[in-house]
Hints:
- By secondary structure, the chain is of the alpha+beta class.
- It has helices at 35-47, 54-66, 110-121, 138-147, 155-158, 161-177, 182-190, 260-266, 268-275, 281-294, 318-322, and strands at 15-21, 86-92, 98-104, 135-137, 199-206, 212-218, 239-242, 251-258, 307-316, 328-337, 341-347, 355-360, 372-382.
- The protein has one domain (13-172, 197-318, 326-381): Glutamine Phosphoribosylpyrophosphate, subunit 1, domain 1, CATH 3.60.20.30.
- The strands form two sheets. An eight-stranded mixed β-sheet has the order 4-3-2-6-5-1-11-12. The chain has a five-stranded antiparallel β-sheet with strand order 7-8-9-10-13.
- Helix 1 packs antiparallel against helix 2 (54-66) and helix 2 packs antiparallel against helix 3.
- Belongs to the Ntn-hydrolase family.
- The active site is at residue 200.
Amino acid sequence: ERGETGKGKGEGLRGGIGIGPNCPPGAGYHSESKAKEYKHVCKRACQRVSCISQKFVFKVDAYLQDSPFTNAGTGSNLNLSGEIECDASIMDGKSLNYGAVGALSGIKNPVLVARRLLSETQKGKLSAGRIPPCFLVGKGAEQWAISHGIPACPTEKMTTKFSLSGYKRNKRKMELAEQVETKRKRQSCEHENNSACLDTVGAVVVDREGNVAAAVSSGGLAMKHPGRVGQAAHYGCGCWAENARDISLYSTAVSTSGSGEHLIRTMLARECSTAMQAENAHQALLEAMQNKFISSPFLAGEDCVLGGVIVLRCCTCGEAQRSEDIQALLVEFLWSHTTESMCVGYMSAQDSKARTHISRLPPGAVAGQSLAIEGGVCRLGTMSD
């Protein structure tokens, strides 16, 4: 079930999560020694929520943010100033509303702020006919969150021993790198396989009525410049969710991870969602990752394009379209990445436990130039169950 064109089979797929790399070349690798911890985090995240709905997607994301093994919320990478700044977004496929925060400090679970922005947008205009914001950054985002009842959390409480030691180590390396030539500095970065870079987290979900949603959150690159906003907060780049507007179309939900700048310039989340309207989902995702990402003209100057996606698409089964008594969903959950590895987990409300998997590039494949793709197709019981 593994490989560049491998397919897998699954049952009861309704919700999926992914922990994917958001690191510079040479990183983005889930070591075998940490595989058990990564898979455990994914499994626990799925199992913490019993009701598969739009709430699932941000509750799972919030749980993942609390894990020290992920780069989102608690334990996030520190920026050049030694502070934590997080990005997050969520999109509701039914209303097409979107909420996002960027370079946000002082809030434990940034995705909760994104979710509150989305819900406030659904309430309509503000006083004097003002349009409510859907994307806030920095201090303004923090103030808005606190004013809407989301408690503040000092950076020191979100910083772990692991992230702090990584910051100190990276700072020493930067100081040393400034004293040597550019070539040597680049080689040092390329050969560094450091787990301190950690990961971005994302989630996609479909409920029993066929509504989809997606979310993503990240602490960003280690030693990033203060104020840098990655793909996790950008519309169409970090996540995308869209209900089918016609019975001949698919509902889709996508969440991305990887090099933020690469994902922003290619708008990969929306590109993958659009591609999912093709008949063969596996082939469509393969072509989207190859043509819209690795070989994208927007990344023509890049020789190492790093990214990963989790994709969920669904439609009403053929017999359900003809009978009101049969309300079944055909669901496909796929993932693909150009990084060395990506950890995923998935389950349905009917499953007793989640399934987890660490996907890796095929032997001999070059990260940033090759891709892995896996996933499965299943039919889910009645939508009224």
